[in-house]
Description:
The chain is mainly beta and 244 residues long. It has helices at 91-94, 116-120, 238-242; strands at 14-19, 26-33, 39-47, 51-58, 63-70, 75-80, 89-90, 97-101, 106-114, 124-134, 156-164, 170-180, 184-190, 196-202, 205-209, 215-220, 223-228, 232-237.
Amino acid sequence: MVRWAMALVLACAATVVLAADADPDRRVETVQFAQGETSVLINAVLQGRNYVDYQVRGGANQTLGVTLKSKHSMNYFNVNPPGSEMSMFVGSLSGNQFKRLLPADGVYTIRVYLMRAAARRNETARYTLTVSLQGTALKPVPPSKDALIRGTPFHASASIACSRQDMPMQRCDANVIRRDSGGTGTVEVVWPGGFKRNILFVKLQPMASDSRDAMTFSRQGDVTTVSIGNDERVDIPDALIAGG
Length: 244
């Protein structure tokens, strides 16, 4: 099998830093944008079971854009949020263009791959990947203005009503990184068992999540009910986000 040493990488207005990995089929590249630039163009070659993870550090409220151009019909990419293998975008289901507001700070992974049938046949794909990161990140409120929970990046936590995958309503832990005093912040919901979901609120309105499913919301009193697809529901009290 031809290894990733044959890959051709052309980066415009960016520096691409290569990282070693224990998975012999995986290549990791950290994309850093040059000063004043918001996009990078990468030309590369993919073969067989090999895949490449392009890692981009983004901030809450920035917009990440990705476009893949390839003549191989089974060449796709996914986007994974920080610290998760649960993709917020799956190219084989949604196509070769992605543009989303980011809900949380951290490293987002753009995974480029061949579908299993093409990988088994050791086929080759030449592709162009365009990655952009635009907008201004909303910085966390400093501890001097809003104290953190000891040993965490969170300003507050609460037990909230939640449900997932047709289960009855139960209690989940919710943690918040506040980004101003007006009800703006990232809420991390943690279900029993450890599954996590990040939701960005701006002025108490849900704006983005790290799910690939659509998000809707409604309000009753001082509680916002957020529904993600048909499988998730959480009730977020205003006090968690805004304090008080």
